[in-house]
Amino acid sequence: MLTQVLPGFRELRTPLATGVLWLLTLWVALGDRVPERARATGFAARVYELAELVGRPGVGAALLFTAYVVGSVVSVPANQLLREPAAQDAWGAVQVLPERWPVVQGRPVLTQYRAAASGSYPAFTDTRLLTRQAWADLRAHVRTSPLPRWLETHRSERHREVAENILLRDVLDELGQLGTRLHAKNSTLYADQDRLMAEADLRVNVGAGVAVLAVALSVRVSPLFLLAFALSALLVAMGRGRARQANDVIVQALVIGEVESTALAEADRAAEALGAVPPGDDRPEDG
Length: 287
Known about the structure:
- The structure is a single chain.
- The protein contains eleven helices and no strands.
- By secondary structure, it is mainly alpha-helical.
- The protein has two domains: about 1-75 and about 175-255, no CATH class; about 85-175 and about 260-275, no CATH class.
- Helix 1 (about 1-30) packs across helix 2, helix 5 packs parallel to helix 10 (about 230-255) and helix 9 (about 185-220) packs antiparallel against helix 10.
- It starts with a helix and ends in a 12-residue tail after the last helix.
- Keywords: Membrane, Transmembrane, Transmembrane helix.
């Protein structure tokens, strides 16, 4: 029973805590503009009448619901803070892949062979999503797949590097889907990943809420409240660390074969097709 309740509570606590902090910030910033009950007129008076009608439990429930709605809108996933903003723009449809390589996740077949050796294409180093050990394990896992090994043998080391970088990016783009597959395949590992990610989201969003509240208190009460930024930064840093650990669980599940990556499966099928190419017909023509 408890294991069924906890996942729901994890989804509830982050938007609720975040919303409470933001509502408290609004109260600190604008609370003195709310008229007292004896002086309230118009809409404000109707609100006081409604509060008297439903009683304190009703007012508390309404505030909690409002906090949940506000928190759901302003909450940010912890993984959003870990992704490289320029990584996606650096890889476009003009990337170098050997000719006759079938489409990997919808990308077109590319034939710029000479440009692959020029080193003009960006390196992919988005390691902030993972710890160093998990990143090394993922790179080793991708490096041993058939397609990069075929490229190194039949093309060049640069082709292999480009292919590895594209596959690494595609696997990281699949983290959410891999988590869903892990839920269906191994509930124990998924529970660990879900717990870590829920803690990450909570710490990141509470840290952001504390920062906003500190600004409001520093303006309305005392600049000393800006010292709370240290607590905010600590919470955000802890949340980022938890998010990496959660992503590590998915990567390790991929490495040990608990889940399968669509990108790597497509690459394996591409390697099988390339292996059927007649000898001497796998190099691009000069021209």
